[in-house]
Every structure is written in C-alpha cells, then in structure tokens.
Amino acid sequence: MTWLPRPLVRPPQDVAGLVDTFGRVGRDLRVSVTDRCNLRCTYCMPAEGLPWLPKPEMLTDEELIRLVGIFVRLGVRQVRLTGGEPLLRRSLAEVVSGIAALEPRPKIAMTTNGVGLDRLAGRLAEAGLDRVNVSLDTVDPEEFRSLTRRDRFGDVERGLKAAEAAGLAPVKVNAVAMRGINDHSVAELLQWCLDRGYELRFIEQMPLDAQHQWDRAAMVTADEIRSRLGERYHLTPLPSEERGSAPAEMFLVDGGPEKVGIIASVSAPFCAACDRVRLTADGQVRNCLFARGEADLRGPMREGATDEDLIDIIRAEMWAKRRGHGIGEPDFEQPTRPMSAIGG
Ligand code: SAM
Ligand code: SF4
Description:
Layout: E1 28-34, H1 61-73, E2 78-83, H2 92-100, E3 107-112, H3 117-127, E4 131-135, H4 141-148, H5 153-165, E5 172-176, H6 186-196, E6 199-203, H7 222-230, E7 235-237, E8 249-253, E9 259-263, E10 276-279, E11 284-286, E12 295-296, H8 298-302, H9 307-319, H10 339-342
Parallel strand pairs: 1-2, 1-10, 2-3, 3-4, 4-5, 5-6, 6-9
Antiparallel strand pairs: 7-8, 8-9, 10-11, 11-12
The structure holds S-adenosylmethionine and iron/sulfur cluster (SF4).
Iron/sulfur cluster binds near residues 37, 44, 45, 84 and 135.
C-alpha cells in the first residue's frame, strides 16, 4: 500500500471499534465540512482570513458520506457538522440527508455561527438535522462587530429564531469569554438566552487561534465566569453523573429548570472521558483537537482503498490518541492547523 505515511500501530484484533490505549471509545464524530468562514472572530482567525483549502482537496459529498458511514460502522453514534462555517457548504442539506440514511442512523448536530440559518434551518431539519449549537459571544451588536469583525448580530438572532421554529430544539448557544471584550457582559448574555429559552454554555478560550496569540494568563477561566454569573444568579451544580461524557459542568439557574454550562477545557480538562474523533474537510482523521499528527483518508480513498483499508488507518490513529491535550505542559505545542481548519 503506497499511501501509508508511517507504519501503523494497530490495536489488537480482539478489541473492536474506535478504542485507544487508555480504554476510551470514540462515539462522537466531529466533521468539518468546510474551512471557510464569513466571520472573523478575533480568537479564531486573522482579519484577512486564511488560505482556504482548494476545492479538489476537499472531500466530495460522496466521499464524506462514505467516510462517516465507516465511522458509524466503527461505533460512532453522534455526528456533529462544523467548520469553518458549515452553512457555507452549498450541499450541506444533501450531506445531512446522506448521513441520516446511514444504519444505524446517528444523531446529527451542527455547530454554526448562525449567519444564514434563517434561510436554511427548515431545509436542514427536513434533511435530518436533529440539533444545533449557535455560537454567540455577546448580545451587544457593537461588541459583536468588534469581536467577529462583521456587523451580523441581527442575522444570528434571526438564525436562532428559525432554528427553534424548525424544531431544532433545545437550541443551544456556545460562548467564549474574552478579557476586556465581553467578559463583563456574560450575565447579560445568560439573561438574553434565558428569556428566549436557549441553553447557554461558556467555553474557555483554547490555544487554537490561527495567529498563535493565545495567552493563558489572559484567558477568562471557568471559575471567573462562574463567579461573574454568581453575582446575578444563584447557581447550583448538577451532579456529575448527570453529565455523562459531556464536558460542560452544568448549573441550575436560580433553582432551575433553566441551566447554564461552563466548559473548563483548559483549567479542568475532561480528556479522560473524551469520546471524540474528528474528520477534517480534506479527509484527515484526527484523534484530538490538539493532536500533532493526523492520518490521511482522502488519498487512499482516491487510490481505491477498500473500507477495510480505511478502517485500518482510522483504528490505528485512534489507538495513538494521547492521554490528554497537554496544554500547560512543558512540551505542549499548539497544532499547526487552527480550530477553523480542524473543525471546532
Ligand atoms: N463557525 C462555526 C461556529 O463559530 O460555531 C463552527 C466552527 S467554530 C471553530 C466552533 C466553535 O469553536 C465556536 O463555538 C467557537 O466559538 C469556538 N472556538 C473557536 N476558536 C476557539 C478558541 N480558540 N477557543 C475556544 N473555542 C473556540
Ligand atoms: Fe468563523 Fe466560527 Fe472561527 Fe468565528 S469561531 S471565525 S464563526 S469558524
């Protein structure tokens, strides 16, 4: 086989599925359907954008659906479409319906910035999309503009409404708190979400920006977010057994039933319970957001690899998954691909 870039270290034959040497099992596949984006969030991309993948390097719909089918065969039960901005892929509804036709049908979710969702939510729900997370870091249109470098807050607002109307419930909102930019308004964001029935989760900023400017000392920590929210709301932690492998620590807001989540991806990593695996828009499998390497599936597939050949590559990549992301450890290296090209 000419396409194998390095010798594969395979898991033992008697261990099935997407397992690694620490006993974790991959069940949640994140698929980047494009690396392009129509916003320029400062913590993600430079103002001028990035050199986008040339079209011939991107997986076609058929290739993408074939690979997702292989992951489903290997035990994946949830597929999350992401990017870049997934709504920019013209054929997104076809991709969703192709995934929805797989057996067993995985749950299909999407992470989006919400721009254009007002036009697409209905079609995507019909195609089989089950749930959506909309990223929104502030509800102040001016703050939104300076954070995303685009004046599109109204589009996101309409997108959220359309998602709800299309039955993509519960609608979830993801937010990153940035020091000196929106960290003072996290309680306003929560109130805005509570008023509309959206479930909000904050996530700590991670060293995945294309500009490599992340600074741990400047990061707004989960503890800080919790105490800022605590100034306005009474937060009661939900028992961790109700969290499963979900990374967010969940809190009841003022006794519930409304909840808010805080994901301490850097200050309290959840790597030990990680069940994720990733497929990039150009057909590389990654065992972690912070993996230093990835394994090519597109090349072999285009050279005629069988499903069994591809399974061999995927399982070997999972077997090589490291114990944790290692942020803060002396040998930590930020991945060369930024979050938008890996699929967040
Ligand atoms: N464009 C879509 C969006 O913004 O939802 C999907 C891709 S985006 C890379 C996925 C998620 O990653 C978003 O919620 C975004 O806020 C988050 N994100 C991007 N860069 C990040 C960083 N450096 N640290 C933490 N989260 C980040
Ligand atoms: Fe685009 Fe999402 Fe990155 Fe913002 S976070 S620039 S919306 S990919």
